[in-house]
Every structure is written in structure tokens, then in C-alpha cells.
Design goal:
Layout: E1 5-21, E2 24-37, E3 42-47, H1 57-69, H2 77-83, H3 88-105, H4 109-112, E4 121-122, E5 125-127, H5 132-141, E6 147-151, H6 157-167, E7 172-176, H7 183-195, E8 198-202, E9 222-224, H8 234-238, E10 243-247, H9 248-251, H10 254-266, E11 270-274, H11 280-290, E12 295-297, E13 314-315, E14 318-319
Parallel strand pairs: 5-6, 6-7, 7-8, 8-9, 9-10, 10-11, 11-12
Antiparallel strand pairs: 1-2, 2-3, 4-14, 13-14
Binding site for Mg(2+): 176, 202, 225
Protein name: Dipeptide epimerase
GO molecular function: metal ion binding; racemase and epimerase activity, acting on amino acids and derivatives
């Protein structure tokens, strides 16, 4: 097809409560949304710029502007990938292309990606970093969610994990340290995680210090997040991690995320499908990856006070296939 016509907006969604991780807190999800149209149908995509990777709303808008000004860039996902590096800007455009292509062909994006049907998946419900007592209270309040994901912060994490396990003896538990642990903390905190029956610890060490994981005997599997962005990262992290968190904003869209999924399976890594705090439009394309994931962390829309219309469908901890009017 010829170059698609592009429109871009910056949208803000207030959160129900502040979202707190080791790197700070936020009270809204500020995202960049794009539409691509061939004049007949329109594709939609969304991304969340992430400061950890040097991204801002302004830098993403500049990158999208560069893409639109580059001849041929907005003709296909392939030409897009030749111009924009992996990251939030490419994610929004790549997902919009998937949606546009599906509508042009009259075939769902899931079918185009090789999924004959989609099934509901159990998603994590995230507990913000807080005191052990406050996190235990939040775990008890999340009565309709059986899979909980704790945000950790280093000092005090053993008490946080133990408190949540005591509060929810029935729940499946995973945790995300967001690079907050040191190599000296690693052994004792993994033992505490094992004692509290955690299934997974995500990104315990800073990405530039995760070499300490290589050859380290551990009682709980560890998952790469900040250490792995694209498919070519998989051979390196496979020597250090047991799993990888695939996020569209890191990979630069569904196209690269699917390649990353295939690379992870070839490397015998387990897979988590995650996303930033964003609207249902960001979660919808990631739902395809969730079909093949060992853990799903796509609860971002549940943290919002307002969402897209139509929103993603959540019920008792399950996420259902996205409405066609939303994406795909």
C-alpha cells in the first residue's frame, strides 16, 4: 500500500491510586496514541515513553515526526523498522500498522499473527511498593485476584514478601525488584522469596550488573526485564536468567515482540508478557503474546480511574480477548 496518513495525540489517564516502584511514583499514565489510515479504515496504536530508557513524550513525538517525514517509512511495518529503533515510538506505529492491516484484509490481527483463536488469560494484579503492612492490606483487598505481583525496593523486601504471603496464603505470587537489589542482597532475598513461595523474581539486579547472576545457584527463578529488549538480546540473557519479560514498548512493537517470543522459546526461557501503566489500547496487542506466556502482567488498565472506550475486559483476575472496536 502507499504511505498511510498519520495522526498523533498525547493522552493522560489518571490513576485510581499512586503507582509506586523502586524508581519513583506516578499518578497518571501519559501516553502517545497514533492512528494510521488508508482513507478507508483506520489502525490504532499506543505507547508509553519510559524515562528509564531515556524516553519522554517529547522525544517520542520527535521520533514519530521523523518517521512521518521519511519517504516510504509509513508504507509498512518493515519500512518502519528500517527507520526507527526499538522503543516506544516504533511500538505505537507498529501496532497501528497491525490494526490497519487487519482491517484492510478483513482478517483479525490474531489470525494474521498465526492465532486461530484467543482464550482468556489470568493476569497479575500489581501491588505498589509500600510498607509490609500496607502491602499485606492491599493483597487482602485484591480478593478477586489470585495472581499478585509485588513491587519491591531492596531493604525490607523480605518482610514485604512474608507479609503478603501471610495475608494471602491462597495466592500465586511473583515480584519485580526493578533493579533495586545488590549482589549482596541476592542470596538472602531469593531465600526469603522461596520461603514465601514466590514463583518468580523479576530483574533483581541493575541491568549493567546482572553478570552476577551467571552461574549463581538460586532457589527461585529470575526474569529479565530491563536487561532484555529485543530478540537479539536473548542469547546473552539466557545465560543469566530463567525467564524474560517481553514488553511491546521495549521491543518496538508486536512484530519484534513476536520474534522475541520465538527466540526465548528456542533458548528454553520462560516468558512473561508485560506492559507499562497504560490504557486498554496498549494491552490489546500484547494480549496476542499472552496466549503463549507463562505469566501475564497486563493489568495496567485496572489501575486507571478512566480508560479507553471500549475498554479491555477483565473479570475475576482474567483478561479476555480485546473488543474488535478497540484493536485488532
Amino acid at each position: 500500500m502507499g504511505a498511510a496518513l498519520l495522526a498523533v495525540t498525547v493522552d493522560s489517564f489518571p490513576l485510581k491510586t499512586p503507582f509506586v516502584i523502586a524508581r519513583g511514583a506516578k499518578t497518571e499514565a501519559r501516553v502517545v496514541a497514533v492512528t494510521l489510515t488508508d482513507g478507508r479504515v483506520t489502525g490504532h496504536g499506543e505507547c508509553t515513553p519510559y524515562a528509564r530508557y531515556g524516553e519522554t513524550v517529547e522525544s517520542v513525538l520527535l521520533a514519530i515526526g521523523k518517521a512521518s517525514d521519511t519517504p516510504g517509512c509509513l508504507e509498512s511495518r518493515e519500512t518502519l523498522a528500517s527507520v526507527l529503533p526499538p522503543g516506544a515510538a516504533r511500538n505505537a506505529l507498529d501496532c497501528a500498522f497491525w490494526d490497519l492491516e487487519a482491517k484492510m484484509a478483513g482478517v483479525s490481527a490474531a489470525m494474521q499473527a498465526g492465532y486461530a483463536s484467543l482464550s482468556a488469560v489470568e493476569t497479575c494484579f500489581t501491588l505498589s511498593l509500600d510498607t509490609p503492612d500496607a502491602m499485606a492490606d492491599a493483597a487482602r483487598a485484591a480478593v478477586h485476584h489470585n495472581l499478585l505481583k509485588l513491587k519491591l525496593g531492596g531493604e525490607g523486601d523480605a518482610a514485604r514478601m512474608a507479609a503478603v504471603r501471610e495475608a494471602r496464603p491462597d495466592a500465586r505470587l511473583v515480584a519485580d525488584a526493578n533493579e533495586a537489589w545488590t549482589p549482596e542482597m541476592l542470596g538472602p532475598l531469593l531465600e526469603a522469596a522461596a520461603a514465601a513461595r514466590f514463583e518468580l523474581i523479576e530483574q533483581p539486579l541493575p541491568a549493567d550488573a546482572d553478570g552476577a547472576l551467571e552461574g549463581f545457584a538460586r532457589s527461585v527463578p529470575v526474569c529479565a526485564d530491563e536487561s532484555a529488549h529485543i530478540a537479539s538480546d536473548i542469547p546473552r540473557v539466557a545465560a543469566r536468567y530463567d525467564a524474560v519479560n517481553i514488553k511491546l514498548d521495549k521491543a518496538g512493537g508486536l512484530t519484534e515482540a513476536l520474534a522475541m517470543l520465538n527466540a526465548a522459546r528456542r533458548a528454553d526461557l520462560k516468558v512473561m508478557t508485560g506492559s507499562m501503566v497504560a490504557s486498554s489500547l496498549a494491552v490489546a496487542p500484547a494480549f496476542l503474546l499472552a496466549q503463549d506466556a507463562d505469566w501475564v502482567d497486563l493489568d495496567g488498565p485496572l489501575l486507571l480511574a478512566e480508560d479507553r472506550d471500549p475498554p479491555a475486559i477483565f473479570e475475576n483476575g482474567l483478561l479476555y480477548p480485546p473488543p474488535a472496536r478497540l484493536w485488532g
